[in-house]
Write a structure and sequence with these properties.
The protein is mainly beta. It folds into three domains: about 70 residues, no CATH class; about 80 residues, Immunoglobulins (Immunoglobulin-like, Sandwich); about 280 residues, paralog of FGE (formylglycine-generating enzyme) (Alpha-Beta Complex). The chain is about 10% helix and about 30% strand. The longest helix has 9 residues. About 40% of the residues are buried.
Length: about 450
């Protein structure tokens, strides 16, 4: 504490919340209180009042402790700590559920309420920065600097701009006619109407944004040699299938039923498997169109004007996480690397049906009908388990720790990336950050795919 001499023999405490400690007094002075419960410092040699510490009126319920020379909360007997608020609103093209982060003298994160308001409490004096973020939106200003000095700080407001992006926009492709319907929200009967899993494909717009790819060092079940955390920025929106491509959808495009789990009673809404990267896409990547007569080539011919393809590995993990940083896109971590109730909520794996697999079994074993488990925050189903999902990239084990923009994988390689784990896997292999790979000619009954529409 800094003591300022206002006049001869008078010292002032600059701020109410600072504690008056005996050790901070000028030499030769001792502390007492007078009859009005105000701290009076006296010269112990002659007992005469020598220095008075002038403070504003203490808050209700706060008293001066003569013995220890501190301001106390009279209810608890603890030294009172005065804290403050930072408040504001987000308005414009989006208001609710915007992430607002606080950095500086303290760090915290919150989300805006339905009316766009947010609040940080329990803050001490100091300098802070408030920053809003929401995929697909920019904010004016992009951040605010706030200095807390003995008072709350209000009206730290932001305006959101979509830049033309419509959050939650969908494209529905009719595989029977080739017609395309654009929607501003998810079809109301998405799960109830089997057409969306058989004769139609539903794609969800995924906003451009930045995320942390990989897993933290303490994540249960992580693969330490291939899940290095690094910042990834995707500069363009893209669309991703709400469901994995099903056997019925694959048949309408390719005219074949390649899957191992092919019981005609149950196969239509199951994900297609036993399809290789070469059959789905082939061609060259990281550049070039799909090869002739592949699934993506035929889909582009059926529905002209859309760049149907697989997602990149970075696009896949970004979409899977949907803003989460946990092992699973539900916002939960694993409780066990093998059998985990949190994994059982979000996808089919060994311990909730996978272990009972038979080739002609029903939907309770092996692969499940797509959309049978909880979706992530962006409405994408089965990103964990069911079938492993091919990605575009040549697999690179060590992606490094440096920030990257729009990564496309290795220039060459022997394996292609596949993500999400499958019905045959334990929980650790189904995590958001798990990174298996396979030769592009592989076509086992654990491998399927999810279609994307590239920008």
């Amino acid at each position: 504490m800094v003591w300022h001499e206002e006049a001869e023999g008078v010292v002032r405490v600059p701020q109410r919340q600072e504690l008056c400690q005996a050790a901070e007094l000028p030499d030769g002075l001792d502390g007492r209180v007078n009859a009005k419960n105000k701290p009076v410092y006296m010269n112990p040699a002659d007992g005469a009042s020598k220095v008075v510490v002038q403070v504003p009126k203490l808050p209700k319920g706060v008293v001066w402790d003569n013995l220890n020379h501190v301001v106390l909360d009279s209810g608890s007997g603890l030294a009172a700590a005065t804290t403050y608020l930072i408040t504001g609103t987000v308005s414009g093209d989006v208001a609710a559920n915007v992430t607002v982060t606080l950095s500086g003298a303290a760090t915290a994160s919150t989300t805006t309420a339905a009316n766009g308001t947010y609040s940080f409490s329990g803050l001490a004096n100091g300098s802070y920065t408030v920053t809003p973020s929401n995929p697909g939106y920019s904010f004016t200003p992009s951040s605010r600097s706030v200095n807390i000095s003995g008072a709350n700080s209000a009206n730290n407001n932001f305006t959101a701009d979509s830049g033309g992006f419509v959050d939650g926009a969908y494209i529905v492709v009719d595989l029977l006619s080739g017609a395309v319907t654009e929607l501003s929200s998810v079809p109301a009967d998405l799960l109830a109407n089997a057409d969306y899993k058989t004769t139609k494909m539903v794609f969800r717009r995924v906003p451009a944004g930045t995320f942390t790819m990989g897993s933290p060092g303490d994540e249960m079940g992580r693969w330490a040699d291939r899940e290095f955390q690094h910042q990834v920025t995707l500069t363009q929106d893209f669309y991703l299938g709400v469901f994995e491509v099903t056997q019925a959808q694959y048949y309408l495009v390719m005219g074949t039923w390649p899957s191992w789990f092919n019981n005609p009673t149950y196969r239509d809404t199951r994900p297609v498997e036993q399809v290789s990267w070469n059959t789905i896409r082939s061609g060259t990547w990281p550049s070039g169109d799909p090869g002739a007569d592949t699934f993506m080539d035929k889909l582009r011919i059926l529905v002209a004007g859309y760049l149907f393809d697989l997602p990149t590995e970075a696009q896949w993990e970004y979409a899977c996480r949907a803003g989460t940083t946990t092992a699973l896109n539900s916002g939960k971590n694993l409780t066990n690397t093998d059998e985990c109730p949190n994994m059982a909520e979000v996808g089919r794996y060994w311990y909730n049906g996978g272990s009972g697999w038979t080739q002609d079994g029903d939907l309770s074993v092996a692969t499940a009908a797509v959309g049978s488990y909880l979706p992530n925050a962006w409405g994408l189903y089965d990103m964990h388990g069911n079938v492993g999902e091919w990605c575009l990239d040549w697999f690179v084990a060590d992606l490094g720790v440096d920030p990257v923009v729009d990564p496309v994988g290795g220039a060459t390689g022997s394996n292609r990336a596949s993500r999400g784990g499958c019905w045959y896997d334990n929980a650790l292999a189904c995590r958001s950050a798990s990174r298996p790979s396979n030769p592009p000619s592989n076509s086992g009954n654990i491998l399927g795919f999810r279609a994307a529409i590239q920008p």
